[in-house]
Design goal:
- With about 300 residues, the chain is α+β, with helices and mostly antiparallel strands.
- Helix 1 runs parallel beside helix 6.
- The strands form 4 sheets. Strands 1, 2, 3, 4, 7, 10, 11, 12 and 13 form a 9-stranded mixed β-sheet that branches. It has a 5-stranded mixed β-sheet with strand order 14-16-17-18-15, covered by helices on one side.
- Helices cover about 20% and strands about 35% of the residues.
- The chain has 3 domains: about 90 residues, 2-Layer Sandwich (Pseudouridine synthase), CATH 3.30.2350.10; about 130 residues, 2-Layer Sandwich (Pseudouridine synthase), CATH 3.30.2350; about 60 residues, Roll (Archaeosine Trna-guanine Transglycosylase, Chain: A, domain 4).
- The chain is globular.
Length: about 300
């Protein structure tokens, strides 16, 4: 029996503009096949309804998937007022209709929206991938089982009303990880007094990447048909880590870090994650612990450097 071909080593991050109607994993598998890649993963699923920024990690970049998942996000959402659905979006059946208050203007909405700015407590949707006893909540929801879900703190950095028309409104949201836009829209609908659900959702920011960084699968397929390499679309793993300060090492301390050992340096760094570089290459993330004599650097995620230090 011949050994199964495992694919080639591909390293880097590809930012995809996810289309509506496909799952994030479906997009991942399409792109993985286009690259013939041995190892790939995404950095947090978007609902099939949603479109927009979906960073995909290949090879060494997968070591930073969780860090990217923990990053802030931004969205533009369209909410339909006066209707609640079982899922909180237009994928689900309507379970309640209520009249939209007359005279609903931006001036009326602003004080209501202000309740949802800053740190808030949010109850996750039953139609989410959060686990209960090892099973995602949406599996229980599809069986008609309601699981009690404690509210969780999330931060809404900005919530802007972009437009309001008839029974719909557009909002722009920047938020911490773990924020459910469907739940936010449902809660805003309750504050208005008529209920609401999401009919369109576009992610505009994830892991520091925006729509300007994103590529679409049809365009990539066209490149393949023209025998053009797709590798030039990849960005280096550290492109998603720009929120952390940079520090360069050399000599014995660099060798120790590469061997997974903690090191001490004289420089006084702020506590937290640091991007570590050799003379040329990014070598990984370390955690800095400053004290009166300098800083201890503890390696957390290291990449293969190909010997270029």
């Amino acid at each position: 029996m011949s050994r199964r071909h495992k694919g080639r080593d591909v390293n880097g991050i590809l930012v995809i503009d996810k289309p509506q109607g496909l799952t994030s994993n479906g997009i991942l598998q399409q792109v993985k096949r286009l690259y013939g890649a041995a190892k790939a993963g995404h950095t947090g699923a978007l609902d099939p309804l949603a479109t927009g920024v979906l960073p995909l990690c290949f090879g060494e970049a997968t070591k930073f998937s969780q860090t990217m998942l923990d990053s802030d996000k931004a969205y533009i959402a369209t909410a339909r007022l006066g209707e609640r659905t079982e899922t909180g979006d237009s994928e689900g059946s309507v379970v309640e209709n209520r009249p939209v208050p007359e005279g609903l203007t931006a001036d009326v909405l602003e004080p209501l929206l202000d309740r949802f700015r800053g740190e808030i407590q949010q109850v996750p949707s039953m139609y989410s991938a959060l686990k209960h006893k090892g099973r995602p909540l949406y599996e229980y929801a599809r069986q008609g089982i309601e699981i009690e879900r404690p509210a969780r703190p999330v931060t809404i950095y900005s919530l802007e009303l972009l437009a309001i028309r008839d029974n719909e409104m557009d909002i722009a949201v920047k938020c911490t990880k773990g924020t459910y836009i469907r739940s936010l829209v449902e809660d805003i609908g309750e504050a208005i007094g008529c209920g609401a659900h999401v009919v369109a959702l576009r992610r505009t920011l994830a892991a520091g990447f925006t729509l300007a960084d994103a590529h679409d699968v049809p365009g990539m397929e066209a490149m393949r048909e023209r025998d053009e390499s797709l590798d030039g679309l990849l960005v280096a793993p550290d492109a998603a880590l720009s929120m952390f300060p940079e520090h360069r090492l050399s000599g014995p301390v660099l060798v120790s870090i590469l061997n997974g050992q903690a090191v001490r340096i004289e420089a006084q760094l702020d506590q937290g994650y640091v991007r570590v570089y050799g003379n040329q290459d990014f070598v990984g993330l370390a955690e800095a612990f400053p004290d009166s004599e300098g800083t201890q650097l503890v390696p957390k995620r290291l990449v293969k450097t190909g010997g270029r230090l």
